[in-house]
């Protein structure tokens, strides 16, 4: 009973805040829709939530109003607040089933549309663009209060459907702390956010920045008995295509020609993937081991046996190099890297 009261109060206060904080007709219209659905929620907890709604039920979906069409409220914040289902929740997993927001600007900054998450301990980058199929883990403490997912849009066309699962502290599905993404198979594909941008072609030089700025997160791979290391390769098996670019200007290199990749902390200072203890299986590189990888190409193979198995993604806040304009980045697409665990 206390729990129900808490829930209703939470909803009421949230709704009240929404009314007080917003005066535009579009928002009030959204709110009416919200209250209607909220009543229905009591009868069917599995119904999706749209803007300015909360949940304390496991596995709800947060969708744009009008989903699967583009959002019917194309400007402003659309927030979904997640309350713990019980007092033993340590993580929240978001599955971006469908996620299409506006592309970032030329600097890779999510200036038009973005998703921002608050209330969790994990440092979560703002993301935008096309991210259907991606997932995120957020660490929370069992007394976390609430986590708010805010999809803020400023242009028509955005749509999303995000399923929100709550993971108990003793669950076998819990990811190691601090991992924004967690892969549990012996092989798989790790892609940077917005890698699946629609204006991207592997055989022609990129024309727009789709790599997102301001990223700093870890991608972890679950250890398995009998496996002692992880090998990382570019997902595309075509040498010198345009499927990996983090720094430099891939657009100035003609198709078919060599594309320069870099390894090491001297060359990779702004945007890079980090594979701690990486050993390079590629004689085109001057070094045989490196933690950082950038440029417009990736070694034919990088292997690491350092545990926990993890790859980190780092990008700075711009594609512009203020310190050295000769090093300005061009349009970069980010990366798609396959990992495969190697037996001992
Ligand atoms: C929530 O649902 C997920 C997926 O079905 C499940 O793994 C998890 O244990 C559930 N969490 C709770 C607290 O029941």
UniProtKB/TrEMBL annotation:
Residues 1-25 form the signal peptide. It holds the Pfam family CUB_animal. Disulfide bonds join 51-78. Keywords: Disulfide bond, Signal. The gene is LOC108672683. Transmembrane segments: none annotated. InterPro entries: CUB_dom, CUB_metazoa, Sperma_CUB_dom_sf. Residues 51-167, 179-342 form the CUB domain. This is Uncharacterized protein LOC108672683. It comes from Hyalella azteca. It comes from the Eukaryota.
């Amino acid at each position: 009973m206390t729990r129900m009261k808490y829930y209703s109060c939470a909803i009421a206060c949230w709704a009240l805040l929404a009314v007080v904080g917003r005066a535009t007709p579009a928002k009030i219209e959204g709110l009416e829709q919200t209250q209607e659905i909220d009543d229905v929620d009591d009868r069917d907890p599995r119904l999706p939530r749209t803007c300015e709604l909360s949940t304390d039920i496991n596995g709800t979906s947060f969708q744009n109003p009008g989903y699967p069409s583009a959002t019917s409220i194309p400007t402003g914040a659309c927030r979904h607040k997640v309350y713990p289902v019980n007092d033993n929740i340590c993580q929240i997993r978001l599955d971006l089933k469908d996620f299409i927001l506006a592309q970032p600007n030329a600097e890779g900054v999510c200036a038009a549309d973005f998703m921002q998450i608050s209330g969790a301990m994990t440092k979560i980058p703002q993301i935008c663009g096309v991210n259907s199929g991606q997932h995120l883990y957020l660490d929370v403490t069992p007394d976390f209060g609430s986590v708010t997912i805010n999809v803020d849009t400023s242009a028509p066309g955005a749509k999303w459907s995000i399923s929100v699962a709550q993971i108990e502290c003793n669950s076998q599905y819990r990811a190691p702390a601090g991992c924004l993404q967690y892969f549990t198979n012996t092989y798989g594909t790790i892609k940077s956010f917005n890698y699946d941008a629609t204006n991207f072609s592997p055989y022609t030089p990129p024309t727009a920045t789709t790599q997102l700025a301001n990223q700093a997160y870890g991608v972890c791979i679950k250890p398995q008995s009998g496996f002692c290391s992880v090998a990382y390769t570019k997902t595309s098996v075509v040498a010198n295509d345009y499927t990996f670019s983090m720094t430099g200007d891939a657009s100035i290199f003609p198709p078919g020609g060599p594309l320069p990749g870099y390894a090491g902390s001297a060359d990779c200072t702004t945007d890079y993937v980090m594979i701690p203890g990486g050993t390079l299986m590629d004689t085109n590189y001057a070094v045989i081991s490196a933690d950082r990888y950038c440029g417009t190409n990736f070694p034919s193979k990088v292997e690491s046996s350092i545990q926990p198995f993890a790859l980190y993604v780092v990008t700075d806040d711009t594609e512009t190099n203020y310190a050295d304009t000769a090093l300005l980045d061009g349009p970069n697409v980010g990366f798609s890297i396959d990992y495969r665990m190697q037996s001992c």
